[in-house]
Amino acid sequence: MNSQPHDHIVKSYDEERSRLTNEILRMGEMAAAQLESALDVVERRDDKAAERIIANDDAIDALEHEVSQDVMKLALRGPMARDLREILAALRIAADIERVGDYAANVAKRSTALNLAPPLPYTRGLTVLGELAVRQMREVLVAFRDSDPVAAQRVRAQDAEIDTVYTGLFRELLTYMMEDPRAITPCTHLLFMAKNIERIGDHATNIAENVWFLVKGDEPLPPRDKRDFTNTVT
Amino acid sequence: MNSQPHDHIVKSYDEERSRLTNEILRMGEMAAAQLESALDVVERRDDKAAERIIANDDAIDALEHEVSQDVMKLALRGPMARDLREILAALRIAADIERVGDYAANVAKRSTALNLAPPLPYTRGLTVLGELAVRQMREVLVAFRDSDPVAAQRVRAQDAEIDTVYTGLFRELLTYMMEDPRAITPCTHLLFMAKNIERIGDHATNIAENVWFLVKGDEPLPPRDKRDFTNTVT
Question: Which residue segment(s) compose the domain that B99 sits in?
């Protein structure tokens, strides 16, 4: 053993830090996969698979708990300013991923309600929207893994596309409801499912902003578009 | 000056901690007041007031930023385990309050869309639901101020009432939509507003759980009812 006590502490801090990063990446990939499965379940009308997705959400919650524990351990070492930023960003990113998992589980839950009605012709728009959100999640996780603020900024800019598709789907669903009162209940579920996915996009954006903060501190991000106009649809 | 250097550091840590608590209480009261104003705006159909509420949300966001900064300062002092729990709880509570503020602003935003249609007879249910959420927020802030896990546990148990009222309102709004296609767009806004308020209840519950965690650490909370069945309404 040639290592000095100081070296030992430093190395072990780095080890715990990379453990934390891996936990977050694992958590994020689980949430993205949950959303992918939930979209698939909507298309295939598969209640059994929906139940599995709902049950899987506990594993994501458990990982968030682990991240918090690991963050506490790191903070107890009396970190420096840059480390502290990493710790703070890790907590926030884990919380965002946890919400993404909740939304994915909620999409699965509502799909079982949809399956009690005859098949709807209008679930395709939801899949398109969901695939955009899955892509956003995967890309922001890569940006986090690589501590890449430019990639993070790109993900953030793409959120406008999700908002545009969401707004279109929202209007489309309203017209189906107006044409046929029997469509009201299933389309209401689809509206909420679409909203869940739009929110996943917002959480991917939050994660992107935390990757930026992680690397750049309080240096302001460039301004960006917001294109969700459904709050004021008339 | 009789104080020892050690006393000085300890006192100043306490001062920063109580500064943090006060910021969170201020932030929480702002969010509760925003929700109250938003409900009022729906009843009075007052677009100007709605715009003020939307603009006020920035102040809550700014306070969350301040809380994060203060938390970083405290963490840099190399806190002990109990302090760290307070720090972690403070971050999470501030994030929950920030979301409550967003939801309140969203209720205000959607109210301006409602005001473009003729007055609706069904906004009363929303007010009832909203008042429950305002009460939950105020009560959980008191529990936080007093570090009172029993009061926190009471708030958490009351969330089932919000879920019940929300589920009733959800079903009621669906029937209006089925009776009259012209009600579909405004009722969709009301559905989302109701969902926002139900989510505020969930955030009050999260805050309650963090007050518990603050005092009791990882000691498990008693189980509780969940009564939001709208995910599976058919």
Answer: 5-232
